[in-house]
């Protein structure tokens, strides 16, 4: 029997592609994807090895460069995103770093939205300037700031929308147009939305990155990341960087992420419905200054959210009136929801960003990003909505 490549018909929907996309069956014709646990590959002759390394006969040559299980995950993600190609990485931060590092050199310029995940901020604020790369932050909500910053030649733009944890949005179409006019490639961290709620490439983005650790796995089992874009960028710019620096994804993790993709649509639909209901139910609660959720009528950027997202996502941000002390009392009173800095899990999770994920930011930076002392980020899971509401309410009473 020969290896069997699963054909994907163009009329098949995303749900079908997330189950079948990219699968290559071995000679044993297995139902589930195979985990190819190998660091290297063998050749029938010295000539075959030479052809593999000069790329005249492309094939797998070393686990750091590529792996059949990892390739299945990459192909399935490309189908889901509507991208020409993808490369998987060992973590979401490896994906963000690789997507930027392969593009820039000393003398280049990067413009980023100020509302970034803490480690993404560190790359732009601390690492790139050490390499001689000029960096500038703007308020991602303010097109005037984007316009001013991108009035000069720029190599790359980095943003996330919705942002972590304050759920601020960036107008993707407008910023992509401004970035391209400045000569930049626009990189979008789309982890909160996932490809099911927002596809940045359709708004003009060049590169999309994910922490697959979050919704794509969705069950807190493994780390992983992925970078998606044009075949030229992935194969000619990103792949050499990944090949020689080694942020490769484990085949076991790739297999877990493939399994996660099979249920992503079902999980995310439920999580979005519950998250929106919880945010609505908490509006006007006396212990809260705000309950943030992108598709609520009182969300400052609700029209933009409805224009570029299919749903508001699985995150709810609660701003408690009592600051850090009230937030800690809230977290310590939770009985069902777990305290964790992860997100996108089947279990509901809560964290205090100012003292965890964004701790290293200065008070001024936190305030600029809307990370107030009383802000709690809720990642809504798959539990019964009545149980979740009861837990949040009793914790707010304790706060």
Structure description:
The chain has 399 residues and is an alpha/beta fold. It has a domain of 134 residues: Aspartate Aminotransferase, domain 1 (Alpha-Beta Complex). It is 40% helix and 15% strand. The chain contains 14 helices and 14 strands. The strands form three sheets. A seven-stranded mixed β-sheet has the order 3-9-8-7-6-4-5, with helices on both faces. Strands 10-11-14-13-12 form a five-stranded mixed β-sheet. Helix 1 runs antiparallel to helix 10, helix 10 crosses helix 14 and helix 12 packs across helix 14. The termini are far apart.
CATH topology of the domain at 265-398: Aspartate Aminotransferase, domain 1
Approximately how much beta-strand content do the residues carry? 15-25%
CATH superfamily placement of the domain at 265-398 = Aspartate Aminotransferase, domain 1
CATH architecture of the domain at 265-398: Alpha-Beta Complex
Structural class: alpha/beta
Largest sheet: 7 strands, mixed
Helix fraction, binned, reads 25-40%
| Number of strand segments | 14
Overall radius of gyration: 22 Å
**CATH class of the domain at 265-398, please?**
Alpha Beta
The tally of helices reads: 14
Order of helices and strands: EHEHHEHEHEHEHEHEEHHEHEHEEHEH
Low-confidence stretches: none
């Amino acid at each position: 029997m020969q290896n069997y490549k699963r054909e994907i018909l163009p009329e098949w929907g995303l749900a079908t592609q997330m189950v079948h996309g990219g699968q290559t069956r071995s000679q044993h014709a297995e139902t589930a994807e195979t985990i190819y646990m190998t660091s290297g590959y063998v050749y029938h002759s010295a000539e075959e090895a030479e052809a593999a390394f000069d790329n005249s006969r492309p094939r797998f040559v070393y686990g750091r460069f590529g792996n059949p299980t990892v390739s299945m995950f990459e192909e399935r993600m490309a189908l889901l995103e509507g991208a020409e190609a993808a490369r998987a990485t060992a973590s979401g931060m490896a994906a963000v770093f690789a997507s930027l590092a392969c593009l820039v050199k000393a003398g280049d310029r990067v413009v980023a939205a100020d509302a970034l995940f803490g480690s993404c901020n560190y790359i732009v604020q601390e690492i790139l300037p050490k390499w001689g790369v000029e960096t500038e932050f703007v308020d991602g909500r303010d097109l005037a700031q984007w316009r001013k910053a991108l009035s000069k030649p720029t190599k790359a733009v980095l943003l996330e929308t919705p942002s972590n944890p304050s759920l601020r949005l960036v107008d993707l179409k407008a910023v992509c147009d401004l970035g391209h006019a400045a000569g930049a490639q626009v990189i979008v961290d789309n982890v909160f939305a996932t490809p099911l709620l927002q596809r940045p490439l359709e708004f003009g983005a060049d590169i999309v990155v994910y922490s697959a650790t979050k919704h794509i796995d969705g069950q807190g089992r493994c780390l992983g990341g992925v970078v998606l874009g044009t075949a030229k960028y992935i194969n000619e710019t990103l792949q050499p960087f990944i090949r020689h620096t080694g942020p490769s994804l484990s085949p076991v993790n790739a297999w877990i992420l493939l399994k996660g993709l099979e249920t992503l649509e079902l999980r995310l639909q439920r999580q979005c419905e519950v998250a929106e209901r919880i945010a609505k139910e908490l509006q006007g609660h006396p212990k809260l200054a705000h309950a943030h959720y992108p598709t609520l009528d009182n969300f400052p950027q609700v029209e933009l959210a409805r224009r570029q997202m299919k749903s508001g996502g699985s995150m709810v941000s609660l701003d408690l009136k009592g600051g850090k002390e009230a937030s800690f009392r809230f977290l310590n009173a939770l009985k069902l929801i777990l305290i964790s800095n992860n997100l996108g899990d089947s279990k509901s999770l809560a964290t205090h960003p100012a003292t965890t994920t964004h701790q290293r930011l200065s008070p001024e930076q936190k305030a600029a990003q809307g990370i107030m002392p009383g802000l709690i980020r809720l990642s809504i899971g798959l539990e019964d909505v009545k149980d979740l509401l009861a837990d949040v309410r009793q914790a707010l009473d304790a706060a």
